[in-house]
Amino acid sequence: TADFSTFGDEGFEQDTFDIVLGTWGQASQPDGDGDSTVMLWRMPKPLLNVMLNRDSVHGEEWPPGAEVTLTIDDPATGGSPDYTDIQTVTTEAPGYGYPWGYTWVDFDLDGVFDVEPGHTVVLTDGVTTKGHIVSNLAATTIDVDADVVSGTANPGADVYVMAGLFALAFRHQVADGGGNWTADFSTPGDEPDEEETFDIVPGDGSFLQHEEDADGDYTYGNWYVFNTLIMVLPINNWVLAFHWPSGAEVTLTID
């Protein structure tokens, strides 16, 4: 047993440490010539996040095999909750990025329930309960020529905007009093992690995230610039169109 609440007996054990949710460390056992076996450990920190534009609720670091109940409440309706579901936590073996293993639970509500800003989303396994009020987060305009992404969030909220499939560039914006924000990737930002620029072209996209609430939960989403395409199959007399705006009226002309 290793007690980090008090000083140890040896000279190098004169520090204490407050272990909280999300803390990680390692235990090792060396042999006589310096080789050792190492085991990484982590104090799980169950999280809840909502992907607003995909109507998806995701949980991380919940106990392996636990049954997690999702409830969503719309304060504008009389009933509570307005939606509920139960899923079992999935476990992934230790690997890159998660050497202590990774657990998650997903609720894909696309076409099932429309998650909207202001909804209260709760996950619980009967031991831990996490709640989050969905924020008004969206990317509403992507200016390809100017390399600018604009959108909305709660007024005064911190918004983290990424560009590129692997978040090659990053911008931190604060929504104004009207809830509007703009992320300019054409020039470097003014914060240490905003040095990279990014040339946005059709087919590009990435993620945006609302600031975390008090216990680490958050709303996030993604943005994408459609690369509109047409495909002609003369043998079938077919013309196919891909990645055009949903609901748009598309006119075909053949000369």
Automatic annotation (TrEMBL):
Name used for this protein in its record: Uncharacterized protein
